[in-house]
Amino acid sequence: MPTFEAPDGTRLAYRTIGSGEPLICVPGGAMRASEYLGELGGLAGERQLVLLDLRGTGASAAPADPATYRCDRQVADIEALRAHLGLDRVDLLAHSAGSNLALLYAAAHPGRVRRLALITPTLWAVGIPVTPEQRREAALLRSGEPWFEEAWPHFEARLRGETPDGPYAAFFHGRWDERAQALEAAGSGQINPEAAQRYASEGAFDPPATRAALADLGAEVLVLTGALDGGPLPRVAQRLDEVLPAAEFVVQPGAGHFPWLDDPDAFRRTLAAFLDPSVRTVRTARGRLAYTVTGPETATEAPPVVLVHGRGADRRTWADIADELAADRRVFALDLGGHGLSDWPGTYSFAGFRDDLRAFIEALGLSGATVIGHSLGGAAAWLLAQEQPGLIGRLVLEEAPPLVPLDPRRAPAERPAGALPFDWPLVPATDRDLNDPDPSWRAGYERITAPTLVIAGGTKSHVPQRQIAAMAARIPHARLVTIDAGHLVHEERSEEFVAAVREFGV
Length: 506
Prior knowledge:
The protein contains 19 helices and 16 strands. With 506 residues, the protein is α/β, with parallel strands linked by helices. Helix 3 (132-140) packs antiparallel against helix 4 (148-159). The longest helix is centred in the last third of the chain and has 14 residues, at 350-363. It is elongated and about 80 Å long. The termini are far apart. The relative contact order is 0.08.
């Protein structure tokens, strides 16, 4: 393992996993070796994780002076690691008790922190405690679990300061499965008890001073809590907005204190979106939507453009088109729910994707935008255009299904093996809508008042071209253009696609 020297001469170790920009990871415990963080639910596939073993834990040496286990005394260790890695500014992730060290570092070196992700954080450093009553409140949410009756007395004993032998740790996990049990079984061998006792000892924290110093922090901040966690409850963690009002707060459904174990994909998507400087997020009633923005930041007379992908794709399918249109337009490309880095709510329909698009346009104040939608995204766009005509200025529908009942009907699809960049349940859900669409949808073609360009893919497409032509004929201000490229016109014939869009006045 690579090592570096702390200012007091203590040799500290860290591991790196993955590739890309470094993300310094500060473990909790308190004072637990970083091994328990693993690959943080696959986050190592997005960034290079720099997993620090705090002094006296894991492969790091014990200090000559045990008093330096105190949290504030370890701030210099983080700064030494930054300098050792040759980074001007760092992205910092901290879990649980490690969040206090991260906050103290950010307060001491605000100009050195670019992004700060606090995962199920304890917040002693800023004077926000976790009480036994709060832990009990969260634990009672688990009363329906098969292990609850056995675990509850041990949990109560733990709250009294005793050291129970039973499975009280089940309350810290959204899923008390083999992975959670293995993490807990390894805990005693990974924590330095003396260091843990000194970590938050007297003098470690000065909340008023830390709060004042954090006022100068310009870093982006994410606070991720588990919906089932009592340390802290999500509403308690939300109090950090008193200190960091610009922080983004995310509650991971079904998660406890170790959210990367409870739902690795949800954890990875949230962190990947936060850590990617090109990705932004907006919250809607159905969850968090990720998107990118390109084009001039200064105001232009031209309306913005919203790009909406097809089923199973995401915002990246539009990269080349966005670059072309961004020459004179502000271009927004979003991930619909269940796709890419947006939340995956688990329930889907064409109406739901329409509502995603509506919420996105309204939340960002994009009323009057030109909306360009492909396939499923095109259907979401024309459904919205007929329901709320004023939201869309111009409409481009690329190979959008007319939502005429399929004949023959689509048979149940079988999920392919391996990881997918989208939530598989959206496939059978939207197939049901394709087989039996709401008749009122196609009855409302005439309510679309926006000037509309319908782009068909020709004979190579699996979408019936006569149905696309019939839909275009019924939309009052529609023009039909055929580009013989198949279903993926914007990918297969991008230059012709852009030319058609430009000729349409975009």
